[in-house]
UniProtKB/TrEMBL annotation:
This is DUF1738 domain-containing protein. Pfam families: ArdcN, MPTase-PolyVal. One of its GO terms (molecular function) is single-stranded DNA binding. Transmembrane segments: none annotated. Keywords: Coiled coil. It comes from Bacteroides cellulosilyticus CL02T12C19. Residues 527-557 form a coiled coil. Residues 21-157 form the N-terminal domain. InterPro entries: ArdC_N, MPTase-PolyVal. Residues 212-316 form the Polyvalent protein metallopeptidase domain.
Amino acid sequence: MAGYRRQNTDGPNSEDKALDLFAEMMIEKLETISKDWKKPWFTEGSLQWPRNLSGREYNGMNALMLMLHCEKEGYTIPRFCTFDCVQRLNKPGKNGEELPRVSVLKGEKSFPVMLTTFTCIHKETKEKIKYDDYKNLSEDEKKEYNVYPKMQVFRVFNVAQTNLKEARPELWEKLEKENGRPFVHEGEMFSFEPVERMIRDNLWICPINVKHQDDAFYSISKNEITVPEKVQFKDGEAFYGTLFHEMGHSTGAEGVLNRFQPTSFGSKEYSDEELVAELCGALISQRYGMAKHIKEDSCPYLKSWLDNLKESPQYIKTVLMDVKKASSMITQKIDQIARDIEREKTENQERTETPKEKVYYASVAYLQMVDDTNRLDALKDKGDYNGLLTLAKEYYDGNGMDEQYTYASPLQNRGDDLLIEDQHFAVVYNGSVGGTYDVMLKYTEQEVRDHIRRYGVDRASEDVKALAREMAAEQFAEMTRHKMPVFEMPNGDVLHVNYNRDRDSLDVGTMTNAGMTVKHHYPYDHNMTLDANLQGVNEQLNDLEEYREEQQEAEYSGGMRR
């Protein structure tokens, strides 16, 4: 392998060593492509996007190197863990039993991943604050601090470098299943719906023009992407891979990630930008289960990339940082569109299929800045919504439903956004007033009905009260199928009764040809049964003088006649 001219005379630190390794791996990959540029960047159908053991995705820079590492070492499950993470697997089981010990196999070597940390120091007082606290400052307050980024290196092991398969066979089987391809190709003209929606509805940061012509390019002056029609490519994957490449370019525009100015486009320096776009396209294609071949227009840059890498490993650091930012911007947008599509499909399915039982959402934890939402904010900013949901569940204290904060919809306030939900929980974010998270536990309608029967609705939300009124209406309708309830008053009057759902009352009156003429309204008490409510109304009616006077008069008259 070609040597490097190192500038640091004090010897290599951990970051230098990591960059040396990354440069070597990238040189090896580029030399392979140089010999056969029709080979894909990554082996077809091989790996998903790398994640840590808890399921959190690595950023684009680390993901790229970890995939190259997996291919080189033959790892089939792209899941990684630190030594400390391995040790945390050795906690006692659910019932306190000792489980087989998980450990890194003897002789296995770790692989570096790089994480940027920030030191924030006040310009005058020299006081240090946490970066999470710095992010919560106002723009004027932020100007009072100097922020120093620092790249830190962590060492990770692939799960195949541990005895996890033998010590935790159920977890290993789960990881194997999760490594299945995320999408199944349907013929040669495979279609990826989120990107099709993005093109159709103009949802990207610039217009994407699909035209019947031969060139794919991003125009800086017009700030727009142009690509040939999909039918002009050999398959759907080639179309999307080319589009991802051009989308990578578009993130570098002024006012976005500011990687280049219009004057630099097409110049010698632009070869760096071309490598960023190529790696970005390859990464994103791999993430969504597609193979990405090097764009033919990029082939002339191969020698320049190799020369730069052999000259200085620091070159790969600059490129990978740009790839990280660009790929993150693109995947977050695609994932958001994918979630919107899935939500629409679910709603349409619910409308066309047999109606499913309605779900209610009960707030179990309402978190604001004062509750320290930094960890949740970090996961949201990364787009790691599964990790966010897992963390949010930890705030649930196990208490039952609070009917005062139980709703038919998780979205109750202006600005609410349902970030993610599973079978049991949902997390709602509101960006106003510093940002809040509402952790909600899901209940079926039947569970809410049972709760109403047990606890009533004295302090319930309007949605729960509406369900209680529906229950009362159903019970009254069932009763009237057999016999219409009437009250025979002491004075001989016959009064009919009906449940008024709008007023939530039992209405009492006399029946005429035009219907019932209501004379009295009695609030319905949902803490009692229907029979008990009717009995209560009957007792109140008997206490009314208008239904007693005639009876008393009749008794008096009768006494006189005797």
